[in-house]
Amino acid sequence: MTIAENATLSLGSGYINGDASISCFLNVRIGHGVAIGPELMLIDDDRHQLSGTSTSAGPINIGDHVWLGSRVTILKGTTIGDGAVVAAGSVVTRDVPAGELWGGVPARFIRAVA
């Protein structure tokens, strides 16, 4: 886990399985009742730059009662809404609305959560 100086990591309740990697260079918020599968990656900053470009960062916000499957990657500037589910192996590159199941690379809407 990496938390940069002046960054904010906020952890609610729930559980995180083994081998999770959280890179917090700006702001990462995990809500209450969140279930996180093994080998999760949360990255809120590129932490690198290509020649002639600058790095960019964006907060990651994970709502309450979210389930993140095994090997999910969540990238900068994304929000996972309350009660959402992200399928195993998915890469989240944009906001996931509350109460929806998303999956794939990149993650996309599959169906509403029952």
From TrEMBL:
Q: Which InterPro entries match?
A: Hexapep, Hexapeptide_acetyltransf, Trimer_LpxA-like_sf
Q: NADP: is it a keyword of this entry?
A: no
Q: What SUPFAM superfamilies does this protein's entry cite?
A: Trimeric LpxA-like enzymes
Keyword Glycosyltransferase recorded: no
Q: Which UniProt keywords apply?
A: Acyltransferase, Transferase
Q: Where is the signal peptide, in residue numbers?
A: none
Q: Origin organism of this chain?
A: Sphingomonas longa
The protein's name is Acyltransferase
Record field: transmembrane: none
Q: Which GO terms describe its molecular function?
A: acyltransferase activity
